[in-house]
């Protein structure tokens, strides 16, 4: 646990909290000790608040729906289990013999649960500011600005991309065709007067999104996982 505290850059005043965070329910049941499930419950909320606060300030022009989608990617099981592996948490979890034999140390669900419990332990031990600092440190790779931009919708991604160059996209209506009950809208997106993408869709928004994605594809921009 000394190594883990070093990697987290946080020293526990009450190390028992970290011990509980690393104790699987199977071990707790076998040895009648407290396990991580209550901490996991709290840690889920602490993590969501911390990530929400970060995204709110880091992406000031991004709408609520997109922020929600980016946050979901950052707090999902797959992401948290990867973070736990980077921190070497698997080898520290206290498991029952049966759970150990079944590969529990590398199960994504267990690693993600323990990661949330560790965040809760930091919160209870040092408060929300320390918890946010540790969470940002642990998720540093995932919170990198380029990674965040890759996870936005196409219009937001294009805007972020062009804003870095002091430019802004402009969407221009081209035409609408088809029956009134199911029209197809055509839009194009321009930058500095030049057409950089075109798209069509069953709504104006869908057509603009397609035009933005077309522009990003032309630029060779990455897609969100």
Structural description of this entry:
Keywords: Cytoplasm, Endonuclease, Hydrolase, Magnesium, Metal-binding, mRNA processing, Nuclease, RNA-binding, rRNA processing, rRNA-binding, tRNA processing. It is an enzyme of class 3 (hydrolase). Residues 153-221 form the DRBM domain. Pfam families: dsrm (PF00035), Ribonucleas_3_3 (PF14622). This protein is 59% helix and 11% strand. The chain is built from twelve helices and three strands, in the order αααααααααααβββα. A hairpin with a 2-residue loop joins β2 and β3. α2 packs antiparallel against α8, α4 crosses α8 and α11 (154-163) packs across α12. The radius of gyration is 23 Å and the shape is elongated.
Quick description:
The protein is mainly alpha-helical and 225 residues long.
SSE arrangement:
Elements: H1 2-8, H2 15-21, H3 25-31, H4 37-58, H5 64-75, H6 77-86, H7 97-101, H8 108-126, H9 128-138, H10 145-150, H11 154-163, E1 170-177, E2 184-191, E3 194-201, H12 204-219
Antiparallel strand pairs: 1-2, 2-3
The average pLDDT value, as a whole number, equals 92
Order of secondary-structure elements: HHHHHHHHHHHEEEH
CA-based gyration radius = 23 Å
- Which percent bin holds the helix content? 55-70%
Number of strands: 3
N-C termini distance: 33 Å
Low-pLDDT windows of residues: none
Task: Summarize the main sheet.
Answer: 3 strands, antiparallel
Beta content: 5-15%
Q: Give the count of helical stretches.
A: 12
Shape: elongated
Estimated structural class: mainly alpha
Protein name: Ribonuclease 3
Cofactor: Mg(2+)
GO molecular function: double-stranded RNA binding; metal ion binding; ribonuclease III activity; rRNA binding
Subcellular location: Cytoplasm
């Amino acid at each position: 646990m000394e190594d883990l505290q070093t990697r987290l850059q946080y020293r526990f005043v009450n190390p028992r909290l970290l011990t509980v965070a690393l104790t699987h329910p199977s071990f707790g049941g076998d040895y009648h000790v407290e396990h991580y499930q209550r901490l996991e419950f709290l840690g889920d909320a602490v993590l969501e608040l911390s990530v929400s606060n970060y995204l709110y300030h880091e992406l000031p022009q991004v709408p609520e729906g997109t922020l929600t989608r980016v946050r979901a990617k950052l707090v999902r099981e797959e992401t948290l289990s990867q973070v736990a592996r980077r921190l070497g948490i698997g080898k520290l979890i206290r498991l029952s013999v049966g759970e150990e034999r079944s590969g529990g140390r590398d199960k994504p669900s267990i690693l993600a649960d323990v990661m949330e419990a560790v965040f809760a332990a930091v919160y209870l031990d040092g408060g929300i500011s320390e918890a946010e600092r540790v969470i940002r440190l642990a998720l540093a790779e995932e919170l990198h600005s380029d990674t965040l931009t890759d996870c936005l919708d196409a219009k937001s991604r294009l805007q972020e991309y062009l804003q870095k160059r002091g430019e802004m996209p402009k969407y221009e209506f081209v035409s609408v065709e088809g029956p009134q009950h199911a029209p197809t809208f055509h839009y194009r997106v321009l930058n500095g007067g030049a057409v950089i993408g075109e798209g069509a869709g069953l709504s104006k928004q869908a057509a603009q999104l397609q035009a933005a994605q077309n522009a990003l594809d032309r630029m060779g921009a990455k897609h969100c996982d």
